Each structure stands twice: as structure tokens, then as C-alpha cells.
């Protein structure tokens, strides 16, 4: 592969199929991918997985695909399709995929991730150091740039871990609120269960931001990929973010502001009653109550201060 080409050149160069498993069966791992839809680079991404990873089995959780993703993946070897169409959440699909893993280590990938040369070699060096580990990510959105992320939070897209490390975790995963917060929750649960979590700075993945078919309405509003999201999808994303963090993790200051912001948005949409939410928190994970209540009061004061400031600004000559 010519690394001097732009990432788009590498995406569309139509590379030949390379099966790393044939070259390196001794390090073979199972790979899991939950699937509802993909993008036009799905086949290219699959080629990168087989080129980089000695794939023992590619386990696909079919959450009810709305495009031709399944037809494409069936062209590849050692693929097993699992029917997850009855599950409501990504988290439960991931649980069932991990339960189907047979190798000691496995790789969890998003379908819109492309792996550059050397990814697996860089990652597998940390098998002895961590039980669940991930890498940096580089976003592909017409231009290529490094994500200036908060090093304190977990990331999703390409992770690797030890199957045994999830034995105490998987029974906790219900079919409910684990959705786009799975990176945060899995990292937190790994640490809470006295397993080692880490980030591999020598590796990164390309995370693609581009149009893909969806069960919800999504319209591109501007060239910076701000999406006009259907209210049903917005509500689902906000609700699972809020309740997933509260249910599965211990109280943490770095997440509480996001919880309140999403809860406020749900109230604006008429989808959440604050008193009922606090009662749910009390019943589900009461340790969060003091932190949530304190942050809610702070944000209320901030909104009042901004409103008063605007009134003063308008009245001054």
C-alpha cells in the first residue's frame, strides 16, 4: 500500500484481498462488529480488517440492516452472522457478540473504521499490559486530521481486550441504555472490576464521518456535517446517554455536565420529567444523586446569570 497517497486515495484504490490469518494463524483473534448500516467504504474497511488482523472468526451482529451490508460481508471468509434484530440496544448486541467469542483476545470494531498498516502489530504488543485497550483515532471528513480528544475519556471505534475480563461485566449488560456510550461504560466497568484499562498511543484508527443510510431521518444541513436529526433519534441518543452513564458507572464529575445537558434537552422536547428522573436515579444508582443535583443547580444559576446579563445589555444605553 502506498502510504504517500491521501487517505481518500487509499480508500478508493481498490486493493487486493489479503488474508492475514493465512500468514499469521498463531495470533488469530475473533472480531466482532454490530451492524445496522454502513457507508460506501464498508468493503474497503473489511479489506483493511483482513489485511491487518489474523481473523479467526468475524462475528456480525445483525441488528436489522437497512442496506446491503450483509450481502457484502458474506463475500469474506469465516464470517458468522448472529440475528440480533430483536434487541433494542447496541450494548446488548455487543454482550451477545462477546459471549460468542472463542479466542482469548478479540477485537471490537465499528463498521465505519478503516485500519492503517501496522494497527494490529502495535495493538497486540499490549496484550500483557492491559485487559481492555484502545487507540487514538483520526477523523476522515473530506480532510484528514487528528482528533484533539480529552485523554481522560474513553473512545470508541477500535478496541481490543481479553474475553475473560468481561465475565463479571456481561451479566450486568441489559437490553436498555448502552448505546453510543459503550466506550465510556466498558472502560469504567473494566476499571471497577479491577482489570487494567489503557490507551495505546502508538496506534490509531481512521474514523469516518460521512453519510450512511439510517432507520431515522438524517439530512446534511451544512458542509461541516451537522446533521438534521429526527427527534426520535435525538431522544433515543440523549436518553441512552443519560441513563446509561447513571446506571452502569459510579459518579464521575467529568460526565455529570453532559448528563444534565442531555436531561435539559429531553425536558425541552417534553420527553423527561425532572422529578421522575431523579426518582429513577434514586432507585437505580442513588450514588449519583448529590452530584446530579449540585450540577443541575449550578447550570440553573448559569442560565439565570446569562439571562440577566442579556437583559442588562439590552437596557444599557
Question: What does it look like?
Answer:
- There is one protein chain.
- With 317 residues, the protein is an alpha/beta fold.
- The chain has two domains: 7-208, Spore Coat Polysaccharide Biosynthesis Protein SpsA, Chain A (Alpha-Beta Complex); 216-281.
- The chain has eleven helices and eleven strands.
- The protein has helices at 7-11, 20-23, 42-52, 69-73, 90-99, 119-124, 182-192, 231-248, 253-268, 274-284, 289-315, and strands at 29-35, 55-62, 79-83, 105-109, 113-114, 132-141, 143-146, 158-162, 197-208, 218-220, 227-229.
- Strands 1, 2, 3, 4, 5, 6, 7, 8 and 9 form a nine-stranded mixed beta sheet that branches. A two-stranded antiparallel ribbon has the order 10-11.
- A hairpin with a 6-residue loop joins β10 and β11.
- The longest helix is centred in the last third of the chain and has 27 residues, at 289-315.
- It is globular and about 70 Å long.
- The mean pLDDT is 88.
CATH architecture of the largest domain: Alpha-Beta Complex
Write down the domain tally. 2
CATH H-level name of the largest domain... which superfamily?
Spore Coat Polysaccharide Biosynthesis Protein SpsA, Chain A
Spans of at least 5 consecutive residues whose pLDDT stays below 50 are none
Query: Which percent range fits the helix content?
Result: 25-40%
The CATH topology of the largest domain comes to: Spore Coat Polysaccharide Biosynthesis Protein SpsA, Chain A
Q: Whole-Å distance between the termini? A: 65 Å
Largest sheet, in brief, is: 9 strands, mixed
CATH class category label of the largest domain? Alpha Beta
Q: Mean pLDDT, rounded to whole units?
A: 88
Structure summary, number of beta strands:
11
Percent of residues in beta strands?
A: 15-25%
Gross morphology: globular
Provide the gyration radius in Å: 21 Å
Instruction: State the secondary-structure class.
Output: alpha/beta
Number of helices: 11
**Run of helices and strands:** HHEHEHEHEEHEEEHEEEHHHH
